[in-house]
User: What shape does this take?
Amino acid sequence: MRTFAFVFARGGSKGLPGKNIRPMLGKPLLAYSIELAKKMAVFEQVFVSTDDAAIAEVAIACGAEVIERPADLAADHSPEILAWRHAIQWTQERYGPFERFVSLPATAPLRAMLDVENALEALHVRQADICLSMTPAQRSPYFNMVKTNAEGLIELACSVEGTVVRRQDAPVLFDLTTVVYATYCSYVMNCISLFDGRVTAVEVPKERAVDIDDWVDFQLAETLMAVRERQYA
Assistant: This one.
């Protein structure tokens, strides 16, 4: 089954300007996703979809092929699934039909090849339309997440029958991560939202599930990356 890897990296980022090519331990953030994908035999080619010339330059230097993303698909309000469809159409026009589509966002540099392999396996074994990635949630709306009511007081965001007095007693919840999205081209081209069909997910440990949105996330990811590199030095 023909499988291609894609990294979607816009030039604009309000949380951390220039984050996709911001140096992490001396290497552009984008490079981590590209390099991991290029090490995996399952991927026939690695593409970077971007609207930004500087990102495109880094992508080419790392061995990826660049897909020029139209400006209207790179705005803050643009649904990423539209960029996915554009990338699929662009690739099919040049490389012919392919079946499996895998997105590896630059904002999750700590992913391991195992995470991607597990997602592709789960997609097949569970006969799903798409496989996402998730990590155990640190907070729960049933125990330690609150909302403000009409009186200006706070209350639990969600309630269940009885009283939850320990986090362990609350329903088990997960945070979605951007570590990996594995799906089929046919699903991307026909779904309205990612949750339209049979959706499954693979669990990723906390230390590999950091999703970089702002400078705090970046510092955490860089620290964990440094620890990893020392361990394998």
Notes: The chain has a mean pLDDT of 91. The first strand starts at residue 3 and ends at 8. The chain has two domains: 3-134+176-231, 138-172. The CA atoms of residues 16 and 216 lie 9 Å apart.
